[in-house]
Amino acid sequence: MEFPDGVLGIVGHNGAGKSSLLEAVAWALYGTPAVRTRAEAVATIGASDPCRVRLEFDLGGEAFRLERVLKPSSTTAELARGDELLAEGAREVADYVAERLLRMDYQTFYASIFTRQGELDKFVSMSSEPRRQAVERLLRISDVREAGQRARQQKRDLGNRLEGLRSQLVARDGEPLQPRLAAELAALQERSAALGKAGEPLEAARETAAKQDAQALKAWEQTEANAEKYRTAEKRHDAAQSALKLAGERLQNAQKTLDDSYKKEKEAAELRSATAASDAPGKLAALREKQAAVEKELQELAAGKGKLDAALAANGRE
Questions:
Q1: Which of 43, 118, 197, 244 is close enough to 51 for a disulfide, judged by CB 3.0 to 4.6 Å?
Q2: What is the pLDDT of residue 193?
Q3: Rounded CA gap, 240 and 222, in Å?
């Protein structure tokens, strides 16, 4: 069954099921508390199939689907928005409808959605004021008004009680305590202001000290950086001194080798002169052998001298 939009009138004979139709909608939304009978009497007497109500409705531009099923031993319910399952279970669906979807209980739902035939007859015969009261009673507006009145009365009662407590505040000497407390509060406020002014020079001194500390820290960091540079330069100087000492030792060794080479060359020249001046064959052969040995040693010295020259050149590059 599809209900059209707008105000809908349901007409039928007594017992035709007009109220049952609306109660079926309420039962699907809220469960057994929304109907006029017990749970076991909801279904048709003697029926073996489950009693089922399926609602499809739009709310706030969204489509909802609700289904409640009464079985012999249990009741199930599901509420979905499109393909999204919002609630499942008989009590869970009823709570979701009352607290989050419609935000009204089943009594407010009945009062807001439809009016029974007998109530319409009463409305027709009522004057304006009784009709207003009846509408407020149906919509439970009177409950809200009464709650507001009770809240305002409680506010007045609490205000009167507060004034009474204030008037009871007295000192031990019998004088009202509130004026004395006000005077003491004013004195404390003045003292606080005076302390604030007295603390201004201290605050300025603190800021100056903080700036000086920052400058000292910066100077110390610069000094530490310079000291690190000095330590690095000192290490390099020590390394250069060691290299210079080693080069001096190598130079002395080279000079000694060079002197030995000059000495050997002189001896070789003397041998060559003696060989040229000698006429004896035996002496000549001996001198030639000695000359060959000296020349060989001279070659070895020359080779050593070349190595020393190369070492000196390399040391000069270092």
A1: 43
A2: 85
A3: 27
Q: What is the pTM of this model?
A: 0.41
pLDDT tens digits, one per residue of 32-56: 888 777 766 666 666 677 889 999 9
d(CA 202, CA 90): 73
Q: Which of 33-37, 113-117, 185-189 has the highest mean pLDDT?
A: 185-189
Mean pLDDT of 180-201: 82
Residue (of 275, 297, 276) closest to 287 by Cα position: 275
46 phi and psi angles, rounded to 5 deg = 90, -5
The residues that bridge with 69 in the sheet, in sequence order, are 52, 76
28-67 in b/e form (b: 16+ CB < 10 A) is bbbbbebbeeeeeebbeeeeeeebebeeeeeeeeeebbbb
Q: What is the pLDDT of residues 68-108, one digit of tens each?
A: 998 878 899 999 999 999 999 999 999 999 999 998 888 87
The secondary structure of the chain, three-state, reads CCCCCCCCCCCCCCCCCHHHHHHHHHHHHHCHHHCCCCHHHCCCCCCCCCEEEEEEEEECCEEEEEEEEECCCCEEEEEEECCEEEEECHHHHHHHHHHHHCCCCHHHHHHHHCCCHHHHHHHHHCCHHHHHHHHHHHHCHHHHHHHHHHHHHHHHHHHHHHHHHHHCCECCCCCEHHHHHHHHHHHHHHHHHHHHHHHHHHHHHHHHHHHHHHHHHHHHHHHHHHHHHHHHHHHHHHHHHHHHHHHHHHHHHHHHHHHHHHHHHHHHHHHHHHHHHCCCHHHHHHHHHHHHHHHHHHHHHHHHHHHHHHHHHHHHHC
Please give the radius of gyration of the chain, using alpha carbons only, rounded to the nearest integer: 60
Separation of alpha carbons 177 and 158, rounded Å: 21
Provide CB contacts within 8 A for 184, sequence distance 6+: none
